[in-house]
Amino acid sequence: MPSYTPMIQQYLHIKAQYPDAFLFFRLGDFYELFFDDAIKAAQELEITLTSRDGGGDERVPMCGVPYHSAQGYIEQLIEKGYKVAICEQVEDPKAAKGVVRREVVQLITPGTLMEGKGLSDKENCYLAALTPFADGTYGLAYADLSTGEVRLTLLSSWEETANELHAIRARELVVSSDSDDGWVRELKERFAATVSYEDEAAWRDEWDRVAGHVGQEKLRSTLARLLHYLVRTQKRRLDHLQPAELYQVDQYMKMDRHSKQHLELVETVRLKGRKGSLLWLLDETVTAMGGRLLKQWLDRPLVNREEIERRLDFVETLKAAYFERQELRSGLHSVYDIERLAGRISYGNANARDLVQLKKSLLEVPALRRTVGALPLSEAGRLAERLDPCEELVELLERSIQEQPPLSVKEGNIIKDGYDQRLDRCRDASRNGKAWIAELEAKEREATGIKSLKVGYNRVFGYYIEVTKPNLPLVPEGRYERKQTLANAERFITPELKEKEALILEAEEKSIELEYELFVAIREQTKQYIPRLQTLAKAIAELDVLQSFAAVSDERRYVRPQFSTERVLAIQGGRHPVVEKVLGTQTYVPNDCYMDREREMLLITGPNMAGKSTYMRQVALTAIMAQIGCFVPAERAVLPIFDQVFTRIGAADDLAAGQSTFMVEMLEARHAIAHATQNSLILFDEIGRGTSTYDGMALAQAIIEYIHDRIGAKTLFSTHYHELTALEETLPRLVNVHARAVEENGKVVFLHQIAAGAADKSYGIHVAELAGLPSSLIERARCLLAEWEQSTPKREAAESSARSPQADEEDAPAKTAGQASGRPPSRAAGERKARERETVVEQLTMFPDLAPAPVGASLSQKEKKVLAALKDLHLLEMTPLEALNKLYELQKLLK
Length: 895
Ligand SMILES: Nc1ncnc2c1ncn2[C@@H]1O[C@H](COP(=O)(O)OP(=O)(O)OP(=O)(O)O)[C@@H](O)[C@H]1O
What we know:
Blueprint: H1 6-15, E1 22-27, E2 30-34, H2 35-45, E3 50-52, E4 60-66, H3 70-79, E5 84-89, E6 102-108, E7 127-132, E8 138-144, E9 149-155, H4 158-168, E10 172-175, H5 181-191, E11 194-197, H6 208-211, H7 217-234, E12 245-246, H8 257-263, H9 278-282, H10 288-299, H11 305-320, H12 322-333, H13 338-347, H14 352-373, H15 378-386, H16 391-400, H17 421-448, E13 454-458, E14 462-468, E15 481-485, E16 489-493, H18 495-527, H19 530-555, E17 562-563, E18 569-574, H20 577-583, E19 591-595, E20 601-605, H21 612-628, E21 636-639, E22 645-648, H22 661-675, E23 681-685, H23 693-711, E24 714-718, H24 727-730, E25 734-744, E26 747-756, H25 764-770, H26 775-790, H27 792-799, H28 805-810, H29 812-820, H30 824-844, H31 861-872, H32 880-894
Parallel strand pairs: 1-5, 7-10, 9-12, 10-11, 17-21, 20-24, 20-25, 22-23, 23-24
Antiparallel strand pairs: 1-2, 2-4, 3-4, 5-6, 7-8, 8-9, 13-14, 14-16, 15-16, 18-19, 18-21, 25-26
Helix pairs in contact: 10-19, 11-19, 12-14, 12-19, 13-14, 13-19, 14-15, 14-16, 17-18, 23-30, 25-26, 26-27, 29-30, 31-32
The structure holds adenosine-5'-triphosphate.
């Protein structure tokens, strides 16, 4: 270190405090990066790597970006999950003795974005702090710095915590520095987040404003971690942080990440984009604030009936009030993102344009308030009261800030005339000076007789008088002083001109300084309105989401759902909202769904492509839409209020994360079975298809029986195992329905209608034909099917998913025998299935309660050990890869 130059020493000293960030070191008009930072940044940003002499033995690697275009580069690094420490010169270089003093003024991190491309209008950007406690609970606190929102909850398990982290999609997670490495790695990979460290530290009094009401120590310490991190990185007061909202996850309908994905609530499975999701369909919001709130509501459907009805009342009123709704929409169009503007004002980086946007937004509020207040609904009256127009603030901004100020706050042209006398005086001086100069041209032309004489200005020489070469003899001796020679003209100054120029420049410089001073003072004054602006922003966001629901409901003919306390689900003419929108209302075939206490499970059969998954999804989406307070796509809908929704639909397998299709299916089934209650909704699509027929069928049946007998959740279960349809005989609350298809001229026609009873045929080969498989292949499949159908007993296993009516008839005696003895398929198969039993055991151990009678007696010590190890695995706490590795290890033991 001693041989480095003082500046490099200063750099190294500061860099040592920010080892995990790129240090942007201000040198004149550039931010420079040195050493490893420079090498890495040059690669990431594709900029030139150079070097400089730093006093040491070797040259110091270096790269840099201009100060004025640094924002784009910083955003690129943040986007990639890095952090950037901004190190500024904090004293005037002219006044500095030795090296200019420098300090890091802000640490920009992925979870603390305040502006830029990384911040999308309709999405929150969360930073979350997480504390695991010894009793297995987790404290979670998160904040969106750009909006000031802070939320806080205590979660009872890692599984619950992981669900919450997935839902909020935090970009950065703050944990204690002694966290377990494996856990940190999991956090990084599983949630694609940057992990940062902050250790527990004392509570500061100033935080009482944010969380004075939070008494529980676990929550306070987690919140303290979050706030300490914010203070350490942002290095300023964060007055816009709102009082922390304390919540519990069971205030909302619970849905795990997979269920949300399968139902495509906020993004589609295939394209991972918004388009095609329920959010895309419902988003008729006009403001960014409304857009963000809609996503939050969709992530957290309500379970409190009163709250749901309150939203529905509002939507119903707005739906009926077409003209008022149009008025509201057009008013909302002129409202900017007040929530983020408030954040920027408090943060101290709002410019004059931001204040003009704020004023314009506030000017819309009285009209919005009038329209909402006039709606025939008491709830609307309450919302209108929260639409605070902040008149004094509007008056201040109206009086002070020009209508079209520049982006920069240091170049003047911000403050209106008449706002401040000192400024007016400066401006007068400058204007008078300029007027004098404007008159000078005419005066001098007359005095000299030079018609082409001009008065001009440039940055280097200031004001001058220009005379073309042919006229030079007419220039008055002594009065004009030569300043510059051009190709065909000479430029002169006079003492009076210079005097006026000095006056003008001085006045301008002074007014620019004054304007900045005044602007900062106005911004400070605006700060006092932040709590009011935040309340207003919330009310606007709510109004926007409710009008969006009303607009969609009106346009798409949705109806108000009713809620049943008797656990009845009765949907008449129900539609899948997104498929209906994509296919068109004319093409979409509506379907009914009826379930109650005596009819808790629907076993859905029918050919591929017949509409089974769509039907199941439409039931779940209808329930979710109802519980966020929106109307639903049906002619009539009576619904229970569901506490949780579980889905396993389609093949959204996490193969990249090391999970096999079957494993994912089993894990999700386990999750549902472990948590569902009689107030839950379960959708299982072809569970068990990913393994050999008997395994799959056995599992499917065992799962159905378990849910039926022990949980009683409303369940829709689709399957290609036709044998399972016989369960209707033995499970009193299970009913068969099927998706209809008919054959016309040898071609299959899907009717997309759900009808009572079981399907009689599979049409798998027809679907393959539709998919364009070669005709010779299709013919061969037909021959094989016919052959197998002839020799049913031998080939039962293989044909089960492509069974014809004749085959069903041939199987009838076995079914009858089975039915007589209780559970048809497994018992009917009798001894044959007993042979299969051992292979099923391993999979059933995932559902301990479903496992058949103890078979341990016949197992070897080694096998018992493996079984015990399997039983003790906490699968949901392992990464997919760890689970697979463990399985591999156990399997190896057996071999
Ligand atoms: N009610 C409906 N009205 C019109 N079209 C529908 C309807 N339901 C489904 N469809 C269309 O049929 C296609 C197949 O539906 P879906 O995926 O639900 O079939 P499936 O029976 O679950 O098939 P598989 O068994 O192969 O998974 C959908 O993509 C949709 O375009």
